[in-house]
């Protein structure tokens, strides 16, 4: 499917997170070396061009790109829901996120051409800076390698405390020597590690779709302070009610509110033994 000329004038909204409390366990992770790269895929189960891109994201670890090297997030947009199949993971908030990339005007194509005239799926965005079709594996490998080789501007360290249905994520962000002083914001994404969906209608009718890193919620963004001695940031997210913690992955991202370029991303290691209060 190619309907890239379809513009959606929507405002950015945050995905809220409820809270509940029970027993606590902890896990800590630190930024990997070489630089960890954020890969976002805007996709839809109603788009016949998207399954190949989703399969690629699912295969990243087997292709030598584990979470320590690449943090993938797949956002299911809602503008193809009128083609016979309503994507159960779609959200207008994710469409608005994609629209914000288009409106910010700082995306570029791999050939260096700047800007974006409309929304399309499957759209892959690497580190908030470069976009291309998610079916283009060669381009994806090249842009991931390019981003991984870039000198990191910030260091990101996370700690997570799981309390029943809630995860409290602590983020410590520090500037590397020589890093430009600019505004940054941090957020945490909550994603299903894997999803398998039998599609009965629409362009993918009759297919069973296998997807990974399916974003279910985004926390509100929190302003980052790079001042010496600045306190850590705290972000609370809630586990989707239909998933155990063992089926969930979290990702922390530091991103420019202006350019949407990504300075740091990290897969947040959840405890190997979830809190005793976890409800299956």
Structural description of this entry:
With 280 residues, the chain is mainly β. The protein has one domain (24-268): Immunoglobulin-like. 13% of the residues lie in helices and 35% in strands. It has three helices and 13 strands; from the N terminus they run E-E-H-E-H-E-E-H-E-E-E-E-E-E-E-E. The strands form three sheets. Strands 8, 9, 10, 12 and 13 form a five-stranded antiparallel beta sheet that branches. Strands 1-6-7-11 form a four-stranded antiparallel beta sheet, with no helix packed on it. The longest helix has 13 residues, at 92-104. Residues 2-25 and 276-280 have low confidence and may be disordered.
How does the SSE layout of this entry go?
Layout: E1 24-30, E2 37-43, H1 50-59, E3 70-76, H2 92-104, E4 123-126, E5 130-133, H3 137-149, E6 154-163, E7 166-175, E8 184-198, E9 208-218, E10 222-224, E11 233-238, E12 248-255, E13 262-268
Parallel strand pairs: 2-3
Antiparallel strand pairs: 1-6, 2-4, 4-5, 6-7, 7-11, 8-9, 8-10, 8-12, 12-13
List descriptors:
disordered N terminus; 5-stranded antiparallel β-sheet; Immunoglobulin-like; 13 strands; mainly beta; 3 helices
Query: How large is the radius of gyration?
Result: 18 Å
Mean pLDDT: 87
Beta-strand share of residues: 35-45%
Secondary structure tally: strands: 13
Oligomer: single chain
The SSE string, one letter per element, is EEHEHEEHEEEEEEEE
Domain tally: 1
> In whole angstroms, how far apart are the ends?
38 Å
> Which structural class should the secondary elements be placed in?
mainly beta
Name the poorly predicted regions. Answer: 2-25, 276-280
Supply the number of helical segments. 3
What portion of residues is helical? Answer: 10-25%
What can be said about the biggest beta sheet?
Answer: 5 strands, antiparallel
């Amino acid at each position: 499917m190619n309907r890239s000329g379809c513009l959606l004038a929507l405002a950015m909204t945050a995905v809220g997170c409820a809270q509940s409390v029970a027993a606590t366990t902890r896990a800590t992770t630190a930024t990997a070396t070489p630089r960890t790269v954020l890969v976002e895929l805007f996709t839809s189960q109603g788009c016949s061009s998207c399954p190949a891109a989703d399969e690629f994201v699912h295969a990243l670890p087997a292709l030598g790109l584990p979470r320590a090297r690449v943090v993938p997030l797949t956002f299911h947009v809602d503008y193809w829901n009128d083609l016979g199949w309503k994507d159960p993971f779609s959200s207008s908030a994710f469409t608005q996120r994609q629209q914000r990339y288009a409106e910010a005007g700082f995306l570029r194509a791999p050939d260096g051409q700047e800007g974006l005239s409309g929304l399309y799926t499957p759209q892959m965005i690497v580190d908030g800076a470069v976009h291309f079709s998610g079916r283009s594996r060669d381009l994806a490998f090249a842009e991931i390698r390019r981003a991984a080789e870039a000198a990191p501007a910030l260091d990101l360290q996370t700690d997570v405390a799981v309390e029943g249905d809630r995860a409290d994520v602590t983020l410590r962000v520090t500037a590397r020597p020589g890093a430009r002083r600019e505004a940054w914001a941090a957020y945490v994404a909550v994603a299903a590690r894997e999803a398998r969906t039998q599609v009965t209608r629409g362009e993918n009718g009759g297919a069973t779709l296998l997807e990974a890193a399916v974003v279910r919620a985004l926390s509100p963004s929190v302003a980052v302070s790079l001042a010496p001695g600045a306190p850590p940031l705290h972000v609370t997210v809630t586990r989707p009610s239909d998933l155990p913690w063992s089926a969930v992955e979290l990702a922390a991202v530091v991103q420019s509110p202006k350019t949407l370029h990504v300075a740091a991303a990290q897969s947040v290691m959840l405890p190997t033994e979830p809190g005793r209060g976890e409800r299956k």
